[in-house]
Recover the amino acids of this structure.
């Protein structure tokens, strides 16, 4: 590997800005976040960048690297072409704050609207529950989510069509799926999914699944089954009839 | 004199990790107007990184477990310097706190009969750690976060507190700025809970993030509160050592709990060579028995790899110093070997340790199901912190409470793995409960504008010095080198003296730190502000470590390599003296009750 590489980093605040090229020393095993930190410590003390764990566990360091939504801390330099500058930009779907930092507060607001977990009565006299592992494998998959919001960033319904008011995005579809598929939960969020959360906007392009650093099968395992449940509940005439008779 | 917005609360919680969120939930449920402040976004605090699990004697996997055994394990692990009342409360209350998480939506791994599964961990006699694969911290923080957002709590994400506001000896709020815009804010509160975590960024090789700059400890110390046990820093035995950029990132103890073994370059399991006397009766003396233990054989004793962290870390350091280390200066941690024992080992490892599998695959190009990892000690945790009352978590300052890693007491000289996450819940809840009680019984105290103005002036000074001032990142990095090299895992009096001189030189440079740019999300500025906390607390760690002339738990001195009976009687307490300098004093260890003595005896 060459001992220097150039990073073309977006600098500026509130939507305005420009790329600045920085050359920095690189060593084996480095990730993009290391390079950004090296640049920050030496040449750009005031550069805004979020991070916490440096191990793909906290979902803070999301950015677009060479145009692709990725975690900076999990993107090894040896997976990139260093003969040309590596571009590092903030996520595009959220309002820009400064440099690599965006305003992701919309995501936090969306979550508060979703009906919270409501457990069934405890199964045992000591107030605890009995649940088989096989029955929680699926919701556990969704609970691996580190809230990096890369799936939100890439989803065209949000990114290109700006339907933030009508569509909660893949992150919160798996959040809802996790609640709906939790065997202890007694809530019902299907009507909300259809009417308020805009599940119908998703046309199953699977872009979200492709960028998820936790490799959650967002579309296949969460969105499609949820869509099926919504259809069964509201559009299937026989299903509807069954409900009335019951 | 500038005007800053004032936000009024009954209870203000500084920190949104496990301890802070649990405290806030409790205070809000008690009917208090509650605010929570965090330097990062919500859900990103350190707690998110915890891997192995949380310790609670539920007895789901081994019904011989109960609070008495957990209490005795915690005291033994802490080498009896623990606040015994806290250890008792912790052992008794942890199970209820874990079940409560389940009631709030957490989904733990299950036993075959459908209860919460528990795993083995170092220093715990029975399988005791409730867990979710190796991402337990994520499950915990997300559960608390998702519960908290429905409790009417105000969250100030990406805000940093720079001082506590005082009315005499009473804490009446805090002053800070929002990182995004750089605007100052006053938080006026009847009670304040600190839950700010640890100090790991003062060291070069650490599993800790940028947030761990000793803020809570320094805020409390500057407000007049006492700190305790600051010499006890935990070096986790297994951090990554290669590649250089990931040095220090944690490799969970869960790897050893699942059967992983430590070997030196000659392939020898060196941990069998050095088993401390007080653990001999409970430690396996051959590999076969150790393996059976990890697989749940109740008649087997634990393998020596699962001895306490301080001990394992020192054994690794010894192997490396003796030239028996791995190519990059660590030793080998091997889980792949279990293929000799179980047929589907590859799938098994991926299921039990998914994030370790990913971490090594992605960051080190290494497949842990096939090859051994290279690991070495990393700065992980501080046992010491703000001295608190065992029941209420109030510090020596009226109205100031502390919980979680920033508080001292529960862990004594060494923390057992898994005892932190349960600590956060048990004492986070208690801090919230008693802070709420305090807030209801008291009037709001008076704010003093002069304190605010001073703090704002100090905070803004680096802008005036601009590019001509010191680079704050450079100062930080020199401090990290000094602490790592001179106050690290093996300590010597004269080296620690050097560290203190170094810290005071760095303090002069930090006072001259300069930055350019605006106040909006300026990480250089944030680092410049954090420096003072790191320097103060680094000095205090070194002073306490010099004072304790023995080796115990996380504190190991080459010039006093043995435990001393005399030092077993004292904790070290640090307060700010009248001259503004740290004052280190011996205080007697909280005495055991007769019942506790009995419990310890019966679990020997
Ligand atoms: C990699 C790793 C793995 C671990 N695994 C385990 C495990 O398996 N089991 C276990 O029991 N323990 C484990 N630990 C230890 C445990 O995770 C931590 O000790 C614990 O999470 C600390 O929680 P806390 O609530 O005290 O603080 P944190 O979760 O660190 O939260 C601190 C909060 O305070 C805020 N804060 C700090 N300073 C300020 C300020 N000045 N102004 C405003 N806000 C501030 C921060 O932003 C943050 O929100 C692990 C630690 C690490 C690093
Ligand atoms: S599959 Fe649906 S949610 Fe995912 S990116 Fe495509 S449209 Fe968006
Ligand atoms: S689902 Fe995946 S991509 Fe989306 S926020 Fe969660 S971890 Fe990130
Ligand atoms: S820093 Fe935590 S995911 Fe990258």
């Amino acid at each position: 590997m060459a001992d220097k590489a150039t990073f073309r980093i977006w600098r500026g605040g509130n939507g305005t800005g420009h790329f600045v090229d920085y050359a920095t020393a690189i060593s084996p095993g480095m990730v993009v976040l290391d390079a950004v930190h090296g640049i920050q410590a030496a040449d750009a003390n005031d550069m805004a960048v979020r991070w916490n764990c440096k191990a793909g566990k906290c979902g803070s360091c999301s950015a677009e690297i060479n145009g692709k939504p990725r975690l900076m801390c999990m993107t090894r330099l040896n997976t990139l072409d260093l003969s040309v500058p590596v571009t590092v930009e903030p996520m595009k779907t959220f309002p820009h704050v400064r440099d690599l930092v965006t305003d992701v507060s919309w995501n936090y607001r969306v979550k508060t609207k979703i009906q919270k977990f409501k457990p069934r009565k405890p199964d045992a006299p000591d107030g605890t529950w009995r649940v088989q592992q096989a029955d929680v494998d699926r919701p556990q998959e969704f609970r691996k989510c580190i809230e990096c919001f890369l799936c939100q960033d890439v989803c065209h319904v949000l990114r290109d069509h700006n339907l933030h008011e009508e569509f909660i995005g893949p992150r919160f579809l798996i959040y809802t799926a996790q609640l709906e598929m939790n065997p202890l939960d007694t809530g019902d969020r299907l009507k909300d999914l259809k009417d308020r959360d805009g599940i119908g906007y998703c046309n199953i392009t699977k872009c979200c699944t492709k960028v998820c650093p936790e490799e959650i099968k967002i579309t296949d395992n969460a969105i499609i089954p949820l869509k099926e449940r919504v259809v069964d509940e509201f559009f299937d005439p026989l299903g509807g009839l069954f409900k009335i008779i019951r | 004199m500038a005007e800053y917005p004032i936000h009024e609360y009954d209870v203000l919680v500084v920190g949104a990790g496990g301890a802070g969120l649990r405290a806030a939930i409790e205070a809000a449920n008690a009917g208090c107007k509650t605010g929570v402040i965090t330097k990062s976004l919500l859900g990103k605090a350190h707690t998110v990184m915890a891997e192995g699990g949380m310790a609670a004697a539920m007895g789901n996997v081994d019904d011989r477990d109960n609070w008495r055994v957990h209490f005795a394990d915690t005291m033994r692990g802490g080498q009896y310097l623990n606040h015994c009342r806290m250890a008792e409360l912790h052992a008794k209350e942890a199970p209820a706190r874990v079940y409560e998480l389940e009631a709030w939506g957490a989904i733990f791994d299950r036993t075959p009969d459908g209860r919460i599964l528990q795993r083995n961990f170092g220093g715990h006699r029975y399988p005791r750690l409730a867990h979710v694969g190796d991402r337990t911290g994520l499950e915990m923080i997300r559960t608390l976060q998702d519960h908290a957002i429905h409790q009417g709590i105000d969250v100030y994400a990406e805000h940093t507190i720079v001082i506590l506001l005082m009315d005499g000896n009473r804490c009446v709020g805090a002053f800070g700025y929002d990182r995004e815009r750089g605007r100052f804010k006053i938080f006026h509160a009847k009670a304040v809970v600190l839950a700010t975590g640890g100090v790991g960024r003062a060291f070069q090789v650490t599993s800790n993030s940028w947030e761990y700059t000793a803020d809570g400890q320094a805020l409390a110390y500057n407000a007049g509160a006492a700190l305790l046990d600051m010499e006890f820093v935990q070096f986790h035995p297994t951090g990554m050592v290669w590649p250089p950029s990931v040095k220090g990132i944690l490799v969970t103890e869960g790897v050893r709990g699942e059967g992983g073994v430590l070997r030196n370059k000659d392939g020898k399991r060196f941990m069998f060579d050095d088993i401390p006397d007080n653990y001999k009766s409970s430690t396996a003396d051959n590999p076969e028995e150790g393996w059976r233990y990890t697989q749940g054989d109740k008649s087997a004793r634990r393998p020596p790899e699962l001895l306490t962290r301080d001990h394992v870390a020192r054994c690794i350091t010894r192997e490396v110093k003796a030239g028996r280390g791995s190519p990059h200066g660590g030793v080998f941690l091997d889980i792949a070997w279990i293929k000799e024992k179980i047929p589907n080992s590859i799938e098994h490892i991926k299921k039990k340790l998914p994030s370790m599998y990913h971490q090594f695959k992605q960051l080190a190009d290494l497949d842990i199901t096939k090859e051994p990892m290279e690991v070495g000690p990393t700065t992980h945790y501080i046992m010491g912190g703000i001295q608190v009352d065992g029941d209420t978590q109030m510090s020596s300052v009226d109205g100031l409470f502390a919980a979680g890693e920033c508080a001292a007491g529960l862990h004594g000289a060494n923390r057992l793995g898994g005892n932190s996450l349960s600590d956060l819940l048990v004492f986070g809840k208690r801090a919230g409960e008693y802070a709420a009680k305090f807030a209801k019984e008291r009037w709001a105290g008076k704010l003093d504008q002069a304190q605010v103005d001073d703090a704002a002036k100090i905070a803004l000074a680096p802008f005036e010095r601009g590019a001509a001032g010191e680079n704050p990142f450079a100062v930080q990095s020199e401090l990290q080198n000094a602490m790592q090299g001179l106050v690290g895992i093996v300590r010597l009096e004269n080296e620690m003296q050097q560290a203190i001189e170094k810290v005071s030189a760095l303090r002069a440079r930090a006072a001259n730190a300069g930055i350019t740019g605006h106040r909006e999300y300026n990480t250089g500025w944030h680092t410049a502000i954090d420096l003072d906390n790191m320097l103060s607390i680094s000095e205090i760690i070194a002073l306490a470590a010099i004072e304790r002339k023995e080796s115990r738990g996380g504190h190991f001195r080459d010039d006093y390599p043995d435990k001393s009976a005399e030092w077993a009687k004292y904790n070290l307490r640090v307060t700010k003296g009248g001259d503004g300098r740290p004052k280190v004093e011996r205080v007697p260890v909280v005495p055991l009750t007769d019942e506790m003595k009995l419990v310890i005896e019966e679990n020997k």
